[in-house]
Amino acid sequence: MKTEVSDQSIKSLTKQRNLMKGVAIGYALVMAVAISLALYLTFTKQNAYLLAIVPGCLIVLIPILMRVSQLNNAIKNRSN
Fold this sequence. Notes:
This protein has helices spanning 10-45, 53-79. The protein is mostly helical.
């Protein structure tokens, strides 16, 4: 898979954008469950170290959303 946006066709960019959107949605759903479980266990078992999972989960989502934004901008610029 090519990483440079400028070397790809609109069809390829759209396909990549849809794939990354699916990855972002799937990751967000799994992490919502993991964060909920971590919060539940933190408050019921008094394990405060489980709260360290929350920022880690959110930080991992940032590059995925940045890539989707980059692909959206490339598609928008090419279609005009």
